[in-house]
Design brief:
- The structure is a single chain.
- By secondary structure, the chain is an alpha+beta fold.
- About 20% of the residues lie in helices and about 35% in strands.
- It has 2 domains: about 5-35, no CATH class; about 45-164, Protein of unknown function DUF192 (Jelly Rolls), CATH 2.60.120.1140.
- It has a 7-stranded mixed sheet with strand order 6-5-8-3-2-1-9. It has a two-stranded antiparallel sheet with strand order 4-7.
- β1 (about 45-50) and β2 (about 55-60) form a beta hairpin.
- The longest helix has 13 residues, at about 5-15.
- The protein is globular.
Length: about 160
């Protein structure tokens, strides 16, 4: 369950205090609707390989998914991540409401790794720093757990292979 769901549950329980008999009904509705929540995952899963390292990733193509990214996630397994697909151009990422440090890997249209931004820290303040790509030809951005790129010896020039 994500932080948003927990906060919403607490809010509903406090707001509904005068109607305590309704709480079981609200909880049942919330439990029934939770699987339809898009809070935890993007719409498409895939396996990607970068420099011989495999990751199970959520593929993000829509703007609303891109804005949400990995916000509010409390953990990210070492073999998982999120792959953002965008029209070729400059990429800019920030860590607003992201609770875990991440490595950002920027790839061009051919899937060649252009740049690694290692161990980008979480941001819990109003004005978070932006992490722009050095290249204006970025097509794919892979977010993985901080330190995984170095641990798996992923280097600039590695190829991104997508297996759906």
């Amino acid at each position: 369950m994500c932080v948003f769901d927990l906060a919403l549950t607490r809010y509903l329980l406090i707001s509904l205090r005068p109607w305590r008999r309704a709480i079981p009904v609200v909880c049942w509705l919330f439990a029934a609707l939770l699987p339809m929540s898009r809070c935890l995952s993007a719409t498409e899963l895939a396996t990607v390989q970068v420099g011989g390292a495999d990751f199970q990733v959520e593929v993000v193509q829509r703007e609303d998914e891109r804005r949400r990214g990995l916000m509010f996630r409390q953990t990210l397994p070492a073999d998982q991540g999120m792959l953002f697909v965008q029209p070729p151009g400059r990429a800019e990422f920030w860590m607003k409401n992201t609770l875990i440090p991440l490595d950002l890997l920027y790839f061009d249209i051919d899937g060649t790794l252009l740049e690694i931004v290692p161990a980008v820290p979480p941001c819990r303040v109003r004005n978070c720093p932006i992490y722009p790509s050095a290249s204006a030809a970025v097509r794919y951005i892979l977010e993985i757990k901080a330190g995984e790129a170095a641990r798996r010896r992923i280097a600039v020039g590695a190829s991104l292979l997508l297996d759906r």
